[in-house]
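2024-03-11 09:14:02 INFO receiving multi-entity request
2024-03-11 09:14:02 INFO entity count = two
2024-03-11 09:14:03 INFO echoing inputs for audit
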Amino acid sequence: MDVVITILAAAVRSGTPILYATLGEIITEKSGILNLGLEGLMLMGALTGFSVSQLSGSPWLGIACAFIVGAGISLIHAFLSITLRANQVVSGLALTIFGTGASSFFGQRFVGTTIPGLGRVPVPGLSDIPILGRVLFNHDLLVYISYGLVAFLYWFLVSTRTGLNLRAVGDTPRAADAMGLSVSRYRYIAVLVGGGIVAVGGAYLSVAYTRMWTELMTAGRGWIAVALVIFAIWHPARAAMGAYLFGGVVAFQLRLQAAGTSIPVPLLMMLPYLLTIAVLVFITIRQGKGILFGAPGSLGQPYFREEG
Amino acid sequence: MDIVQMRGITKHFAGVTANHNIDFDLKKGEVHALLGENGAGKSTLMNILYGLYRPDSGTIYIEGKRREFSSPRDAIASGIGMVHQHFMLNPSQTVWENMVMGLADLPEILPKQDILRRINNISEKYSLRVDPTAQVWQLSIGEQQRVAILQMLFRKARVLILDEPTAVLTPQEALRLFELIKQMTTDGYGVVFISHKLHEVMENSQRVTILRKGEKVGTVETFSTSREKLAEMMVGKKFAFSIERSSREPGSVVLEGKNLEVLGDRGLPAVRGVSLHIREGEIVGIAGVAGNGQHELCEALVGLRKVESGKVLVDGKDLTGLSPRAYISRGVRYIPADRKGTGLVANMDVSENAILKKYWKKPVSRGYVIDWNVVRRFTRELVKSFNVSTPSISTPVRNLSGGNLQKLMLGRELSGTPRVVVAVHPTWGLDVAATKFVREKLLSERERGTAVLVVSEDLDELLSLSDRIAVMCQGELMGLVDDPSSITPEEMGLMMAGTPLSCIRKASV
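2024-03-11 09:21:47 INFO inference complete, emitting structure
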């Protein structure tokens, strides 16, 4: 029983970076812009978070800077895909390549060092609940913030004026424009805020999870997040389910490694990715055709007012 | 008192002059029709008034004050509302969400109950019945139009622009719409409606402004003009309203659909149990409001859409479930509605498009290689005999106008020996000369003994071309009339709205 609780608690922690990245991408994609630069954004976020934490001694300053850097890099993508109407796939891939290279280059001097990072803050009262308390409420603050973000994002998209307008911009930019909304403004803000949140996911990895910097430490989590957005059909709560599923398998296979099984380690390390893809395929097949809950209607298509 | 004055409006699109030095006025309480052929610049002019396009030159005055609109937000703030031909609705949201889309004067946390009440108030006042909590994609086109109008009333528009509002409506629905417009003008609204239908303009407007090829021909009082005068102003020359059609006995059945069940793009039934046959040398017309299964039926008949149950026979041979190429080689030809999507490859040039349905056959193809000399010779002939005006045969077809696209496609489909031609909206968006050309070509195919199926929303077109007319509603055949001249427009409208012919005739006996 204790093992299960430990694994579940670890699932939440190792799922949190992906959860942030997925939520960030949901915000971005809800505006109709596809950002495939998550892997690069997470790496830059991880490096910024780590380096600023180490140099300033404040992990929170590190996380704030990671947000700003993530938003800053996303500005490139926003400018290319919204103002210049460039191909969003190409522009997003460019961000990934840029983030991978730049983070390795600037991160060299931090390799092998560690930081104290974010400490554990059990929630008074809640953490005493049997089982659930240890699984959900015995983590660092950034984990709790991610719970809040899931709830907030859902409420924001469904019940607020800005959330409704954002959905309209992503579904039918032409109609949104004709109803007096500035498509570009909504898209810029969504891409910047979304990119910042993705980078916070990266920062979580280095500042709270491993508390050290390693080259390419995201190890494809950015791509998993891209896939999770689809699995979650752009729904924040389902994004949390997906992220924790991935995190759970990561924790489980680490446990198996530690216990010393005869299964080769590379195979074990493949497990989270394989399982996530399998679940995705399964869900997509089951949903079949028809309207998805939240797939933005104009995802990936630039908007140009004066055509036809 | 003029609410709207537009002066000297000029607008170019990529070298084409859409509007040239146009003046337009609208009075309070007036219905002002904007008449012109497709491509005359009507929608462009109104999109400028709505702030969606910015004019290259010219000025707009609203209630005497000069205004510059950089986006629809500004126009809406000045009380201008527009209902586009393709409604500006988000189909994946509810009706009430569409109402408040983009509205600035609402609290951040949306007061849903309050919004619902406001919507109900407006829809009761103008009898625009609609369920505010329904998803827009589930609504019929007529209901969506109501939502689009409500959207503008909700924005407190005082000027309402309707772009081709009746194109998607049954005759009865159109009547109701014009009653609504009348009611609105007595409440002080100014209404502009864009149309190319003369009778509509004659019956429902006080003034008419006629545009032709981007220029204003004139503005006239409706009571002082006539259909013929308007037609002349619109087209620029005397225009024969009817076309010659010989009497001809049809031959044997060529294309036959038996109890066809077909799904639409959303996976819902689009065609329900339709049986239909077309014989040699006859034209069968299919009427109906857009989106009632006509499109899916045609795709099923030419082998492009999966048939869930039922059969498609060509010359008595069962082709159900076979590939589109099996249909092509049996002489089935298709003229789809979306010319640059299904019909032609926009980025390929004229000659490549001309051989799309024969590139694998001799003499175009020799073994595995295409003989481009043969292709060029064939294309030049086709371009000449179908009057396709193109800079060269190596011009990408995306640069051709709608009329030339249609002629090119017609040329490709009618070359060789077609047995069946299925044409969907064959004259949509074409000018008068191209329309005439297309209709004549279809009639000469009929003369030659080809079986022709025409889908159109233009009832006049169907009545003048067809030997028999079928009407579709919600995927079912409401009736098949053997003698188009025997049917009244009222009966047609009732069938389009979903009353089977048998019930109509029974009731009238």
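2024-03-11 09:21:48 INFO post-check: Chain A touches chain B through 26 residues (CB under 8 Å).
2024-03-11 09:21:48 INFO post-check: Confidence is low (pLDDT under 50) at residues 288-292 of chain A.
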